[in-house]
Design a protein that fits this description.
- The complex is a heterodimer of chains A (about 250) and B (about 325).
- With about 250 residues, chain A is of the alpha/beta class.
- Chain A folds into two domains: about 1-75 and about 155-225, Rossmann fold (3-Layer(aba) Sandwich); about 85-155, no CATH class.
- In chain A, about 35% of the residues lie in helices and about 25% in strands.
- Chain A contains nine helices and twelve strands.
- In chain A, α4 (about 110-125) packs across α5 (about 140-155).
- With about 325 residues, chain B is mainly α.
- Chain B has one domain: ABC transporter involved in vitamin B12 uptake, BtuC, CATH 1.10.3470.10.
- Chain B is about 80% helix and about 0% strand.
- Chain B contains 14 helices and no strands.
- The longest helix of chain B has about 35 residues, at about 45-80.
- The chains are: A alpha/beta (about 250), B mainly alpha (about 325).
- The interface of A and B includes residues 45, 75, 101 and 106 of A.
Chain lengths: ~250, ~325
């Protein structure tokens, strides 16, 4: 699980999130929502150890982030970024295999056990048949699944995803989030992903972390709907949020 | 797939051996395979022929293999590090940086009244080239951390190249005839001016560069996915970048110091290796690129001897079509 204590972060002189205290639970799928530019990616990058934060602390599975070595971090947290990996001649199996990097030797030799883990990861995202295809032959949705399989192969208790549903069509979005939900519940992983799909977040996630600058509210989904935070954040002159139907509608 | 790679590797190794022998036979004096065999086995042979084979042909053919492998492997590392299919020692201005170092040494040192023995000047040329190459690489690496646009980096490399040639022209204008002549000869690019003594400096430098390249195979594979991914998989990005820059400086800098600027090998060969082996894994690409580079430069050397042209004209003529093909196909290769 991830625990924040008095965390503040931002970029340059600008503070985006201030005094965040709360936790993201293990065995649950948590959505990170918020308007553009409110620090969703910045927060995820800070948790993943590739972005800095101003003050406070982040604890991963009971250990302070700043006390973890790069190697420890790589076995604690896996990150699926928004970077597109569409490289010709790079096979899906090899991409997923790179997830084993924290466990392999200096040249990255895969043992039989590593191969098994890669096969399992491919199977759990339903991409076993694509193992020998190259990354440039895949659709956006398929690529996203391969990158998730890579994160699974890393065998970490925590998985972060930065806007995994962007560029996906609607059925693919729901499918991907159901997959994440299943992984969180079945494999007891702590999964946190940022998204702009409010309806998906409210329907499929166990908890929602909502950035309402400079605060972050982390609540179970039902409580979040009742809390009124969503209406405040996602209502403007054009649209409003209806807690009863959990949807955003154009004002009539 | 693995079986195919083994066959390809065997074929490439065979090509290197055959072309190595062929390269020894071709030249202004006819030498037969029997003469070469006699020299190797210590049999009877004309003393002049023996001298040609050992002092000129063997050195030159060895240099072709070393330079081909060195330039190609440095190009492969740069393409992955900068995630840029058009990166290479020549394009990014590394060869220009080395040229500037050499120009400052050959043209600048006499202006300051410095001169030395030939071995000292070999070290000086190599050192100057290394410093020049490292300076340009460090600059390109610093800029590419802030600017992700590959076009900007390429334009920057071109600008460095132009700036360097301007500075070199100023130096040439101020220089004495003798220093000027030795510099112009150097810029022609030749594998044949390397002496056996110089090989004693080149071989360790290139071997060191290749050893580092082998040590960064796993980091290079991680970098295929981009820096954020590489870092979350436990890669020490700062150390990796330093090692890659050190390796490319040793490889491209050394070759440029002793053979002059040889273009397009470093840029084109990694692409040939990727296409030939249908692979992006550096465990395959690294040896494949080294072998293909050796084959390519041996071929270029044979052609250049047959047509009596400088070797960098041939590498350009053979390399440019490959570069155009990469640009036109415009796929994400790294």
């Amino acid at each position: 699980m991830i625990r924040f204590t008095n965390l503040s972060l931002g970029y340059g002189d600008r503070t985006l999130i201030d005094n965040l205290t709360g936790e993201v639970a293990a065995g649950a799928l948590t959505a990170l929502v918020g308007r553009n530019g409110t620090g969703k990616s910045t927060l995820l990058r800070a948790i993943a150890g590739i972005g800095d934060y101003f003050g406070g602390s982040i604890e991963l599975c009971g250990r302070d982030l700043r006390s973890l070595s790069a190697a420890d971090l790589a076995t604690t947290i896996a990150f699926v970024t928004t970077d597109k990996v569409r490289i010709a001649n790079l096979r899906c199996r090899d991409v997923v295999g790179l997830g084993r990097a924290p466990y392999t030797n200096w040249i990255g030799r895969m043992q039989a056990q590593d191969e098994d883990i890669v096969n399992e990861a491919l199977a759990s995202v339903g991409m076993s048949d694509y193992a020998d295809k190259t990354m440039d032959q895949m659709s956006d949705g398929e690529c996203q699944r391969i990158m998730i399989a890579r994160a699974l192969a890393q065998q970490t208790p925590i998985i972060l995803l930065d806007e995994p549903t962007a560029f996906l069509d609607m059925p693919n979005r729901y499918e991907l989030c159901s997959l994440l939900s299943r992984l969180a519940h079945d494999e007891k992983k702590c999964i946190l992903f940022s998204t702009h799909e409010l309806d998906i977040a409210l329907e499929l996630c166990d908890a929602v972390a909502l950035i309402s600058p400079p605060q972050v509210h982390i609540l179970p989904t039902d409580e979040m709907i009742r809390s009124g935070h969503i209406e405040r954040l996602f209502t403007n002159g054009v649209v409003e949020f209806n807690p009863a139907t959990k949807t955003v509608k154009v004002k009539g | 797939m693995r079986k195919n790679s083994t066959i390809l590797f065997t074929l490439l190794a065979l090509c290197v051996v055959v072309l190595f022998a062929a390269d020894m036979c071709v030249g202004s004096v006819d030498i037969t395979l029997r003469d070469i065999w006699a020299v190797i086995t210590g049999g009877e042979c004309d003393p002049i022929t023996t001298k040609i084979i050992i002092d000129i042909r063997l050195t030159k053919a060895l240099m072709a293999i070393l330079a081909g492998a060195a330039l190609s492997v440095s190009g492969l590392q740069m393409q992955t590090l900068f995630r840029n299919p058009l990166a290479g020692p020549y394009v990014l201005g590394v060869s220009s940086g080395a040229s500037l170092g050499v120009a400052l040494f050959i043209l600048g040192a006499p202006l300051l009244g410095l001169g030395g023995s030939s071995l000292l000047s070999s070290f000086g040329v190599a050192g100057a080239a290394w410093i020049g190459a490292a300076a340009v690489l460090a600059m390109v690496a610093a800029v590419s951390r802030r600017i992700k646009d590959i076009m900007v980096i390429l334009i920057l490399g071109m600008m460095v190249g132009s700036a360097v040639s301007a500075i070199v022209q100023v130096l040439q204008y101020m220089s004495h005839e003798e220093a000027l002549k030795s510099f112009v000869v150097w810029t022609m690019g030749s594998l044949g001016d390397v002496s056996t003594t110089q090989l004693l400096l080149i071989v360790p430098a290139v071997v060191a560069g290749l050893t580092i390249a082998v040590a960064v195979i796993k980091p290079l594979n991680l970098l295929l996915l981009g820096e954020p991914y590489a870092r979350t998989m436990g890669l020490n990005i700062g150390r990796t970048r330093m090692l890659i820059l050190l390796s490319t400086t040793l490889l491209a800098g050394t070759v440029t110091a002793f053979c002059g600027p040889i273009g397009f090998i470093g840029l084109a060969i990694p692409h040939l290796a990727r296409t030939m082996f249908h692979n992006a894994d550096h465990r395959i690409l690294m040896p494949a690129t080294a072998l293909l580079g050796a084959v390519a430069l041996l071929i270029c050397d044979i052609v250049s001897k047959l047509l009596t042209l400088p070797v960098n004209t041939i590498t350009a003529l053979l390399g440019i079509p490959i570069v155009i093909w990469v640009v036109v196909r415009n796929k994400n290769i790294v």
